[in-house]
Design a protein that fits this description.
The complex is a heterodimer. By secondary structure, chain A is an all-alpha fold. Chain A is built from 16 helices and two strands. Chain A has one domain. Classes of the chains: A mainly alpha, B alpha+beta. Chains A and B meet through helix 7, helix 12, helix 14 and helix 15 of A and helix 1 and helix 2 of B.
Amino acid sequence: MRDNERIDWFFAVSLFLLLSMGLLSIYSASGTDKTLFTHQMYFVIIGAVVFLFASIFPLRFLEEAVPLLYGITLILLVLTIFFGGGPAGRWLQIGPLNIQASEFAKFCVVVLSARWLPALRREFITGGVPLYLATVGLLTVLTLLQPDLGTAAAMVMMVFGMIYWAGFGFSWIFLFLSPLAAAVSSIRFASWLAFTALLSLVLYRSGAKPRRWVFFLVMTTVIAAATPSAWGLLRPYQQTRLTTFLNPEADPYGAGWNVIQSKVAIGAGGITGEGFLNGSQNELAFLPARHTDFVFSVWAEEWGFVGSLFLLFIYSVLVWRILLGAKRSLNPFNSIVGAGTAIFIIIHVVVNVGMTLGMMPVTGLPLPLITYGGSHIITEMLLLGFSYNVIRNWRSY
Amino acid sequence: MRLSSPVNERPYRSVMIVTMILFLVISGKLVELQIVKGDYYSELSSRNHIRSVIRPAPRGIVRDRNGVVLADNIPSFTVSMVSVEFDSANSLLLGELLRMEPQMLQERLSAAASNPYRSTQLLNGLTVENAGRVADNLYRLGGVSVDVLPRRRYPLSSSFCHLIGYVGLADSARVFEGELEGRTGIERILNHRLMGSHGIVREVVDAYGRVVEKFKEGDVDPTPGENVTLTVDAELQLIADSLIISTGHPGAAVVLNWETGEILVLSSIPGFDTNQFIGGISSENWNNILSDPGKPMLNRSWATAYPPGSTYKIVTAAWLLESGIVDENTMPDPCYGTFHFAGSDFSCWSTHGRLNIVGALVQSCDTYFYRTSMLGDMDELAEFSRGYGLGAPVTDILPGEADGTLPTRELLNQLFGQGGWGLGNLMIASIGQGEVLATPLQIAVTAALIASGGELPPLSLVSGELSSHRSWETHTSEETFRIVREGMRLAVSSPRGTLNQSMGYLPVTVFGKSGTAEAGSGGDHAWVTGYLEEPVPVAFAVIIENGGHGGAVAGPVAAGIIEKIVEIDHER
């Protein structure tokens, strides 16, 4: 077995196909002005360099560099909150570059979890769980303040997946997620009571010591109490997005309008699609945000049901290869980096495609490797590069 | 040797299974959208299309000679509709939002339906609240749009209602539904210059008729209409209006500059608010205008011909002198108050005794004119009067300008039959009664021609432009002009003059002639005409309908106008 010298063709071909489908869709969505397409080409080329770098970078050094990466990410996030520009104030301008710090924060969440979780699993560290929750929570809260609700929500889901991957039982996962559950339950007093009862049951079953009882009950109560004011901190468009998802009838033609147009485009694609560059919804510019949030609609309109299934299939292959590598990996850090990357891709594909189909809220999460944009392409290529590294070096400990 | 992986099989399998389930759910939705409902969405998609929307041009601004705005545009919220994209089930909701009478809304909806693919204005001049209410509901009113479009405004609407007129929706829209055109006045006659040319914006609309975005190519910006400056003086006209209103009767006043031919005042009282016609007048307001006993729609300064009464005597006098029937010293038999002729009594308003022509003008003696004009020829008087601007419109552009009437043999034969009329008709005509009819504008022209010695230029209403090709043929010698002018001067300045009481006090030399014309019904029409040489070369005519005695009723109005003219002249 000399896996580390062989190329994983499944992985490589999937990655190549996804990047190609992305470039085709951006080309089609950019209409007569091909500037967006040209930019995307540059992003993919830079992404390829980043990928190659990450695929040979020693993972041991990456693990050691986590505190440094964490610090840099925090600085970028804070800078964006104060100096952010762009349409939603999420871009940090550094010279000619517009950086979306919340994208890099997702990378940080993966490597941070990869460093914390195996240690927490192996031995009891005093204050370990609260510390992990605090460090990851800080990233999430700063991302929420970017403001980037969608990315923050994706981070929480990624954390959930990685905790599960690291081997924690469902009680643990419940405890890890209790801050979020507390926040959600605060909508109604009854649901908060139910949540607290459930939390007590889990704590009792896990035979928690009084200190842990106090910690979880106090923390969740404080969070539940603070949530209504935090809701007030959300931008109106974010509140609208959330409530529109929770109650689509509230605003069927306002925020839901984009989704209707997206569904018309996807549905108009039919079985075989309208053909490359022939999507009338897309070419006549009916599709909103057609190169960003709704790029899948462009693909689905032009390539139809067949093309849409093919796209999902390729994502599945990529996810399968990464998870397989992560499962085989002997190094727990490496394993969680790979699993985090796969979970990252699954969450983004499901949320983004689900959004274009009207099954998920309009969150602005990109479709990995396909949506227009430099920050997320580079973040994804970085994670995929390390994942490929993990696949090839599964034996290293 | 195989090391054991830190991750057992379970998380790997669970994550893969969850992923597959999620992807299957998505695929299921794709089956629904792309296969089951594919045709439906295909159909919806093909209904997204590009439409052209006309952007009306702002009409030209109309100003008076001093820059006072008489007609301009203000931005106004307008609700328009593309009929084909509108679901008629929503008309009730639309009517509620627009606060429109159902009948009026139906009218506009059918207008829109007659041009189903074009945007049609439903209502303009909406308040911010009303427009906002419609805008809030646009998502359920496919095909309806709210825009800010220019709306016509008439700041001095009532005073200039006849001259400026108003705009309305074009009867037969040549270009687009909702197109405005001048209905009356300057708005109508200069419509081609004021209207400008409309622009076109192309919009992409979705299957629900809602605008998705602007289509960048092929837009044409609207070209605003030409601004027009009129020769009229709004300040003077407002004074004339208030003076006429103070008499309590309907009336009209005209002032011209007899050196330049510029029309300064065209006043007609009462007027109406032309602003209420913008965007469709309500039936209540319309009925109010129609039922007003003062008949505000009647334009009295140029579109209504009245018997001119004694103001016509300045023309008759010139004719008598030119035709050699009288000279300056001719003194016919005295005026006894009544003149018996051919079995009829021709009365004079007073007993004047023996007078020459100047005295006859000063005291406005009818008997003098009866006794002298009977020696002349009716057709000759008509022809002579025609040269003074009577009997035909004096401008080319004023809409609905009345011809006026001059009795001729032909006309009288038509009216009364051969032998059904006689010399008496000529005698009555000589004092501006009987068949003679003239507009106040025409009477002002006769005074202007006396003042200028026949040199009055063609009239002008738009600054720097001739508004008439009519040339004047007075066929009058300088000597005759001198005699008539003398009569007019003394009519004001001599203690016996008919205008001495009302106008003699004025600090400037006024040449005038009063008239008290018998009206068919109601009291006599009070007339005065005349002119100034200094400080400003203006000629004027004033009529107060059924006002009574010319000197006593119309005289003070003319005097007030002259006071204002002198005041304005001092200020400048």
